[in-house]
């Protein structure tokens, strides 16, 4: 009985299917139609300046499905891929880029990466073939467009070297500084030394692929972003000029700055010799009196302050500085290592610690003396000319905010005054815009102005309106309650 019921069910299904066939013709899908592929250029020579620019676009007519009854629609999705290869029959390495529109555009960086992916020779003209592949499913053979070719000259992207770019309060790109940081493993982690001429110095950082890194405005100091939509701002150094060891980690999207405030050398003479920063050449040097020529073993130690995402730009963490040999060069180390130098003569000599090249930091000794660099540890810097006004600025919010402006009451002697009644009373600098000098206070005297590397931020107490007075001749400042 059960078998008879099953037979009736099968018979019923067959009859129903037959009835459907008689109601009308079958509707079926045919293969995709091919379409015409065109390009906006037939030759492209690439370089780093074109990384962010569109260098070539490819477009094509709409792919359609052939349906036996044109009055019936279909929900089948066509998936397109732009394919590229060095062989016209696409028998060698093929790059495939998915696309959902009727065109695709390549920036210089994208096209350079594509060319290298398929094996194009850097610096030479390579004929690269393109075609559009479309399919309606994973197991459906693709349909191809016509094949076109573009002559492409790719370039070698240097992902070992990053370039420091000068910026300002308006986050502008003011051009390359000539300072570079180095990533030995080309992994996006760069390091190097930089001597900055003023407190709160602004920079951007450019990688070999054209990526521009700056501060993530939504996260604050020492947090990085290369996304313009992520409030990208410039990176700023803390309120002390001088020499910094910088690590830029694009993987962790953070950077750090170790301020080297002092260095000394032992082993040259009976007493340690203090080094002075030559800011313009990013090197430390000192003159000493050698007892005799020959090979000597020295140690280099110092003091500094570490700034990073944890400390912010306010107060750095006190850090010991030490150098040691690293192959044929020297580098920062946990403890000072023995460094061998060749003293050329008895008498006056000059020792140099040159930090300009991040891949070749060297210590050398030369005969004779050199003129000691100005600034740094050699005394207070004075303005070239008294400015028309002075800005009183605070960095307590993480960026520069002008609290008030001081105007001269004694032009001849550089005395300025002005009033202020706001709530911010700390992390203050007095800025001479004319001569690009940022004044803080001496570490041991808040009333004494200083533009030196070891200066502190100015602060004052109380609330309500005050009158601020600055004397650039005697390098002092004071405030009185109104």
Cα distance spanning the termini: 111 Å
Judging from the principal axes of the Cα atoms, what is the shape?
flat
Mean of pLDDT = 84
Task: Report the structural category.
Answer: mainly beta
Q: How many DSSP H or I helices?
A: 2
Q: Give a quick account of the main beta sheet: strands, pairing sense, barrel closure.
A: 8 strands, antiparallel
Q: Give the C-alpha Rg.
A: 34 Å
How many β-strands, per DSSP?
38
Name the poorly predicted regions.
1-24, 27-32, 64-69, 375-383
Assembly state: single chain
Strand content: over 45%
Précis, in short:
The chain has helices spanning 2-23, 108-117; strands spanning 29-32, 37-39, 43-45, 54-60, 65-67, 79-85, 94-99, 103-107, 126-135, 143-144, 148-153, 161-166, 176-182, 189-196, 202-206, 212-216, 224-225, 232-233, 235-236, 242-249, 254-266, 273-274, 276-278, 283-290, 294-307, 317-326, 329-332, 339-343, 347-354, 362-367, 390-394, 401-410, 415-420, 428-432, 437-442, 445-450, 466-471, 476-481. The chain has 482 residues and is mostly beta strands. Strands 14, 20, 21, 22, 25, 26, 27 and 28 form an eight-stranded antiparallel β-sheet that branches. The protein has an eight-stranded antiparallel β-sheet with strand order 36-35-34-31-32-33-37-38, with no helix packed on it. Strands 12, 13, 15, 16, 17, 18 and 19 form a seven-stranded antiparallel β-sheet that branches.
Question: How would you describe the overall organization of this protein?
Answer:
Mean pLDDT is 84; it is low at 1-24, 27-32, 64-69 and 375-383. This protein has 482 residues and is mainly beta. Strands 14, 20, 21, 22, 25, 26, 27 and 28 form an eight-stranded antiparallel sheet that branches. An eight-stranded antiparallel sheet has the order 36-35-34-31-32-33-37-38, with no helix packed on it. 30% of the residues are buried. β35 and β36 (445-450) form a beta hairpin. It has two helices and 38 strands.
């Amino acid at each position: 009985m059960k078998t008879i019921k099953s037979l009736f069910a099968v018979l019923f299904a067959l009859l129903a299917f037959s009835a459907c066939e008689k109601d009308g013709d079958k509707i079926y899908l045919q293969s995709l139609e091919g379409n015409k592929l065109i390009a906006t250029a037939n030759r492209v020579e690439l370089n780093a300046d074109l990384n962010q620019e569109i260098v070539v676009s490819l477009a094509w007519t709409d792919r359609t499905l052939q349906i036996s009854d044109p009055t019936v629609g279909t929900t089948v999705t066509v998936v397109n891929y732009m394919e590229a290869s060095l062989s016209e029959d696409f028998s060698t390495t093929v790059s495939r880029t998915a696309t959902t529109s009727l065109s695709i555009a390549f920036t210089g960086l994208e096209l350079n990466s594509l060319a290298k992916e398929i094996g194009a020779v850097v610096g030479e003209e390579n004929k690269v073939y393109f075609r559009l592949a479309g399919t309606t499913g994973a197991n459906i053979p693709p349909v191809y467009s016509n094949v076109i070719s573009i002559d492409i000259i790719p370039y070698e992207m240097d992902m070992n070297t990053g370039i420091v770019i000068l910026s300002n309060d308006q986050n502008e790109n003011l051009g390359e500084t000539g300072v570079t940081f180095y990533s030995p493993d080309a992994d996006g982690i760069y390091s190097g030394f930089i001597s900055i001429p003023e407190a709160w110095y602004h920079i951007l950082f450019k990688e070999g692929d054209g990526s521009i890194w700056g501060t993530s405005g939504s996260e604050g100091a020492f947090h990085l972003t290369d996304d313009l939509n992520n409030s990208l701002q410039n990176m700023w150094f803390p309120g002390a000029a001088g020499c910094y060891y910088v690590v830029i980690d694009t993987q962790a999207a953070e950077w750090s700055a170790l301020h080297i405030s002092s260095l000394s050398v032992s082993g040259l003479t009976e007493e340690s010799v203090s080094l002075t920063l030559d800011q313009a050449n990013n090197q430390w040097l000192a003159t000493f009196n050698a007892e005799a020529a020959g090979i000597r073993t020295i140690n280099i130690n110092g003091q500094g302050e570490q700034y990073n995402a944890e400390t912010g730009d306010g107060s750095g963490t006190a850090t010991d500085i030490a150098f040691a040999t690293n192959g044929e060069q020297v580098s920062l180390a946990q403890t000072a290592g023995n460094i061998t130098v060749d003293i050329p003569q008895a008498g006056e000599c000059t020792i140099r610690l040159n930090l300009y090249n991040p891949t070749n930091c060297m210590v050398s000794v030369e005969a004779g003396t050199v003129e000691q660099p100005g600034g740094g540890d050699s005394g207070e810097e004075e303005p070239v000319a008294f400015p028309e006004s002075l800005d009183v600025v605070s960095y307590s919010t993480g960026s520069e905010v002008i609290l008030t402006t001081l105007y001269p009451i004694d032009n001849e002697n550089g005395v300025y005054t002005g009033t202020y009644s706001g709530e911010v009373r700390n992390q203050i600098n007095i800025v001479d815009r004319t001569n690009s000098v940022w004044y803080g206070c001496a570490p041991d005297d808040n009333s004494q102005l200083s533009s030196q590397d070891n200066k502190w931020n100015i602060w004052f107490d109380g609330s309500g309106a005050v009158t601020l007075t600055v004397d650039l001749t005697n390098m002092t400042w004071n405030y009185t309650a109104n």
